[in-house]
Amino acid sequence: MERIFYLSLILFVLYLSTAAIAMARNLEEESSGDTEFIKTSCQSTSYPDLCFQSLSSYASEIKKQPLKLAETALAVSMARAKSAKTYVSEMTDYEGITKRQHEAVLDCVEEMGDTVDRLSKSLKELKRLEDGESGEEFWFCLSNVRTWTSAALTDETTCLDGFGGKAMDGELKSSIRTHIVRVAQDTSNALALINDFASKH
């Protein structure tokens, strides 16, 4: 009797182990599929490597949902824009800054503020589509998202234009440009993913 009990216990443990391994394998395959979805979707953007790098860590939340992918891309872009705005704001006290550079920095801070505001509006509007907006309302929301995201991209370009010309060359321009270009690339990718989502409807 005792032997039968131990044999049953061993079989039960083996069953649990097998089930756990199968579950882990399924989760791994699902995770791999979610990551592959992001990688494939990012091919439609201007900066596919950056797109995948920025979004792959959110694979388990995005799964294979184009709307969630676009929302996440917008959220990443907005967070990057907030960080860049803070960085540029700190450059007003840059050592040796000229009057023209100071004006360009202030203008850039304003542009980045507009960028954050527009990306925030885009994200809120895109989230409305989760509630199942359809027909004319769907396309109205989507049009707003595209308009605001495109305008945010223009703001970022305008910031960089303020540092045009050789007189503005130097470490200040270079460091600001690095931050703003990254925001612009993320915003461009987000817009491409929004358009990709729209093309599926």
UniProtKB/TrEMBL annotation:
Residues 33-193 form the Pectinesterase inhibitor domain. It comes from the Eukaryota. It holds the Pfam family PMEI. InterPro entries: Invertase/methylesterase_inhib, Pectinesterase_inhib_dom, PME_Inhibitor. The keyword Signal applies. Residues 1-24 form the signal peptide. The keyword Signal applies. One of its GO terms (molecular function) is pectinesterase inhibitor activity. Keywords: Signal. SMART domains: PMEI (SM00856). PANTHER family: PECTINESTERASE INHIBITOR 7, PECTINESTERASE INHIBITOR-LIKE. Belongs to the PMEI family. This is Pectinesterase inhibitor 7. It comes from Cardamine amara subsp. amara.
